Amino acid sequence: ATPLSAVAVSGDLYVNHRVGLAFRKPPGWRYENLRTFADIRNEYEYATPDDAFAAELKGGPLPIVVVTRDPVMRKLSPSATVYVEDNPLEPGETPAMAAADIIRGFGSFLNEMRVIGQPDPSRVAGCDAVEIRYGFLYEDRLGNRGPVRGRSIAILNGPLLFTFNTMDIPAAGVDAQAEFDALRDSIVLAAQPAAKPLPALDMLLPLTR
After folding, report:
1. I need a labelling partner for 157 at 20 to 30 A (CA). Which of 18, 85, 149, 184 fits?
2. What percentage of residues in the chain have a pLDDT greater than 70?
3. Which residues, at least 6 apart from 143, have a Cβ–Cβ distance to it below 8 Å?
């Protein structure tokens, strides 16, 4: 596949042929330029006091797509960020079984993180998944700061693990849970996802151009 054919966008429909993923973004929301997302990530105040670890987080893999209600460089906005990686779980391990490790990972970089309720094992697009809800304090050097609510859904599809991280701001009257429910319910995963290793990012991210 060429970079321009790997991803197709039609209105609210996003399709990534290379990794076998499709979903519908909330109506009226926008696809965020991933280079803008990288800039925001560099400004985020990580929870870890370890400067080397913070630098590692800032230089880590980018998501394959980000959708937001508002331009993220202007204000703190509800958003959904989608990552895909080679399956890091042990043989026979499900996302639900790895929930404690996922939570520990989030806690290493989310300020004042607190888990809301229990991890919810589920099936998404016919695949094993787990949903984790949590709150944390968002803060960056651009002046955005405040308590936010997160939902993360980890979905295992063969050799690939997909993670959808969503965020809204109920303390500011911004509740996007219905939009996130609709996005989750719209997810479609191909029966035979991409073989390892994952392609280079340039094959996945034509929306950055």
Report:
1. 149
2. 73
3. none
